[in-house]
Amino acid sequence: MRAPATDLPIVLQDVSYRVRDTAILDRISLSFVPGAPTVLIGPNGGGKTTLMRIAMGLVEPTGGQVSFGGRTGVPPTRRAIVLQRPVMLRRSVSGNLNYALAGAGVARADRAARAADLLGTVGLSGLEERAARRLSGGEQQRLALARALARDPQVLFLDEPTASLDPASTKAVEDVISGIAARGIKVVMSTHDLGEARRLAGEIVLIHRGRVLESGPAGEFFAGPRTQEARRFIGGELLV
Length: 240
Description:
This protein is of the alpha/beta class.
């Protein structure tokens, strides 16, 4: 029996993305493989969000190639993304989640049990009838994670999932992300919080001006960064 197709590894080969005369990404070669979360760090405007959108399959690169499990042109059925400011539908928590489950093709008879499981996963059990737009910022982010998980993804992209959250909400979201990774889902996320990167990352990718300055195991990166730019960034200096 043939093994089911997988989207991993996601391989970017000399990927560039230009908008008119501006290079957003410049000849990036990078692989996302199964395992602990990959965390993208670097200054604002460095290309992290564009990189994730291309790896998700939402944006076509203007140069280079992206492959998914050795294949190209694969629709993002086993990939999901949560943007920095997810939009909540004008529905209840369960209404938002049922909408996502319907879009993922889950049979109507199975949605209630699946929704209960997902809400338990993200710590929102008991809030099913709450209006989604009345949730706190951290609760909305966890609901967005539940909606993404409705697709049963192999790969989950997260664009600064704890931006602007207070410490308690940040911890709650980080705990959910750790749980997702422990289930074998590949997490690729961006963050400006080096403490968060230390807590969650198995691999670090430092991006600046559309290029990968350094990448590798998180422990090695923080213990002994190889480039001057990485040492400066870890030290709190601004990269311009």
